Amino acid sequence: MLESGAADVAPALDLSIPDSELSPSDVSRRGFLRGAGLLGAGAAASVLAVPSGAEAAAAGEHSHGPAGGGTEKGGFTWLAGDHHIHTQYSSDGQYRAVDQAKNGRAYGLNWLVITDHGSNAHAKIGVDKVNPDILATRAELKDLLTFQGLEWNIPAAEHATVFVHPGKNEVAVLKQFEQTYDGSQLPVTNTDAQNEAAAIAGIKFLGQQVRHRKVEGALFLANHPARRGIDSPHEIRNWRDADPTVAIGFEGAPGHQAAGIKAPNGRGGARGYYDNNPSAASYAGYPLESYRTWGGFDWMTATVGGLWDSLLAEGRAWWITVNSDSHVNYLDQSVRGPGSDFELNGRYNDPVYGGGALNTTAGDFWPGYYGRTNVGATSFSYKAVMDGLRAGRVWVDHGRLIKNLDARVRVVGDRRAATGTPLGGVLQVKRGTSTELTLEIDLQDLPNWAHFIPVLKRVDVITGSVTGPVADKDTFKAPDTKVVKSFEVTPGTKKFTVTYSLGRLDQPFYLRLRGTDGNRTQPGLMGAAVDPSGPQLDVIGDADPWADLWFYTNPIWVLPK
């Protein structure tokens, strides 16, 4: 069995190492990968990277808080987090770092990332100035893991979260990265090709900082990828291929979910601020439906057989997350600090709390209030969170639809406790071997932050063939992917448990899961035969996020030996 999560690419996958310098086992492994069409151009590098025993043991060695936090399930500690949060150091932000952190902790988060905006003002002084606030937050809230990052203006594309493991060089690495590779700092005369190359160079720079031991880890996650249509399929593939240990995924659902609440009680806009239309900078191949959310999720994720599935069908480890993108929050009564000069100081003055009326036009929720990225970690530590994210041990939900889940694929008949391959992993078996999915979901029995108990009504099993690298990097369809089984959840039960046969392995495939409260569904964009009851297209001006809840998991692969 192979499982992802290595901090570095395994020797067999590093094509800079000639066959003559590999061990016999790595030569054999490289031969298998070549024969399966899963080696070359970065294909499946982090999916098939195997952590050594030393790497697995090191996952909990760098704890920056007490052992604890999160919930135990399936042999992992599940730590809820949010990787996209703004403060007074963003030109459109408002709150102190500690405000966001305390609210995130109060709403059930175990980790979060402060990601202030890249801009001229931020690039000059923002990374330096926010760091003391983050250090103070870490000292005060020892039961919360607070990362420092930034929101990168990706050259030629949208935005991304970039963050690093805490340490003495975190400021230096982030500052050098932003000043060198942020789109706001590049020549306006750059061509698209030059900007795309700069984005690739930026991701490679982050990987180099890890390998040179400047920081212990660095991660990249593309934010709101379909919002403006400018993250083309080939760019996404190129980011991931630049360094699969750094570029690991994108937002499956954007923040700004409160923006869809109907006026006059809310903004009356679009969930995620997904209210755009194609522009000259957009990728021309995307359909008009891609500029809207579906059940609150990005079109790239919500479409069964769509762009995300096209990456998974190649064997690419590419994960999804959700977050708040919190700037100014719904129903908050604070106001931005008076007398602020952001351009001069790189920050706004501290907010005045209770200084205004209830803000019904804000589009954001506090971190943890609505969306959660749940990471299967081996300990309560910064490194364990980053390792869990990199390994794809992640499921996401809105509105606390469920409490927890454990999903695994195993060989039929293997009844050992906690056996099987978890989310993000790769199960490797002989052709003809029968495999099965085991799924256990702890159903919600406590009110969420909107004061009702969500009810899970249906769980979908989605599978797709692994066909290897595509010839056209702008491919965004996976024609073999579809919903193969749907389970109705019995009302009033506390736990949903199922074992589902996946049949005898003939060709390599992957599996992912999705669940819903069943309030708003429609056939998917690829047709009812592919997705009979997927999420509905969200209506601008009338899209109550609390009335339309979903969870998604990251995939598990099953490959032949």
TrEMBL record:
InterPro entries tied to this protein: PHP_domain, Pol/His_phosphatase_N, Pol/histidinol_Pase-like, TAT_signal, TAT_signal_bac_arc
GO molecular function, one term: 5'-3' DNA exonuclease activity
PROSITE patterns given in the database record: TAT
SMART domains: POLIIIAc (SM00481)
Limits of the Polymerase/histidinol phosphatase N-terminal domain: 81-156
Protein's UniProt name: Histidinol-phosphatase
